[in-house]
Fold each of these.
Amino acid sequence: MKKSLILLAGYPGTGKTYLANLILVKFPNIGFLSPDEIKEKNWDQYGFKNLSEKELLIQRSWKDYYHELEMQFKQGVSMISDYPFSEKQKECLQQLTKKYAYQVLTIRLVAELSVLYERQKVRDLDHSRHLGHLLLSYQKEDRMVNHEKADNLLEYDEFMKRCKTRGYGEFSLGRLIELDVTDFSSVHYEELLEKVNKFLNTE
């Protein structure tokens, strides 16, 4: 297996984590690093009293993410990472992969935005969703039985604005495979996994 970084990019609600798990099952020697998991860990550790403090923790989380990614690269570990990547992350990722001679595959997941908003809403209301994503202030001790009462839920107009202006649907680094997941039942994941296998081993 060549030293590789697989970026699962694209809009929120496209099933990036699901796809990451499929790839990790088929290729168990690949490591996994999630920016969101790092954010959630920092939110639990430090908490935030307002959106400014939350943003500072997000910036800290990205520094932690790049540091951990580089540690894995130094050991030659192939990695997979899922996030709605944009131009904000591209330069750092490009520099790291060039420095350590990693090939990059971007799998960009896209879908109809109205469908994705409904998926996002369902995800936010699920009790497995970390409250740090949904609140204006957060401490680990916080507990909310009903997520519908969260004070920072993403509204339709804001969701659409983010999707249309942040470049989620345009991001790519290295080789690009785009996958439409408007209808999950019609997605040919096995075919995609074969493309991933070819990328990792024969190109």
Amino acid sequence: MPELPEVETYRRFIEETSLHQPIMEVEVQEPRRQLQVDLDEFRKTLMGHSFTGTHRLGKQLFLFTDHGAVVTMHFGMTGDVAYYKDEAETPRFARAVFIFQNGFRLAFIDSRKFGRLGLTTSVEAFQKQKKLGPDALTITAEQLAKGLAKKKGLLKSLLLDQRITPGVGNWIADEVLFQARLHPERRADALTPEEIDRLATSIRRVLETAVNAEAIYRDFPAHYLIHAREWDERPSGGAQDAHLHCPHCQTKIEKDYVGGRATYFCPQCQV
């Protein structure tokens, strides 16, 4: 599933390829499934206009246009984008295609069809409508403390709440808690101000690392928990066990379920 790091990579790709080019045609394969607005309205809003900029909030991507309307993109479980010239190069699972005046095309790809395109008036309006919190990539300790205030739930589950930290997915939450040395079942209302500050710093650093690595997990630092998760989810055998120990203390990484989600942690470092 495309997480915040992947969506940030898509955003930068669109910035480099698809801005300031008049849109001559918009094709949507299954508008009733892929669009959150009427197809005619979507086409009328975009044709003859250009994308002028982008913004990302959590896993949600926004494309600004030259007349104020904003396209929203959510990539579901398998979403991606592509930029190409010839129709013959159209990706197999292109669900929507923006055709530019210069002949190039921007495709919204989604093999599982869980992604969605829509329109909004502004990022702020969309954020308010969906009740999304501040973007996890830039969240401050003050913002995190406000989001967690009076919450008695478990940290792992609360980090996955997009009203608190939009953009934090399952593996990211595990990595953040591992780097902050906080147990996934720690109650939010038991955190000290120092621990909240440490947690906010960990959220930003983990996401910055993932974005800089363009979400290629094998390029993450050796002390990251993601390497244990990757090996555990591969077929068993061989040197698998060598990758299931904490890089800090060599204790075996444990796997449990918190809020129904597979959760990895070190029982020694994350007491």
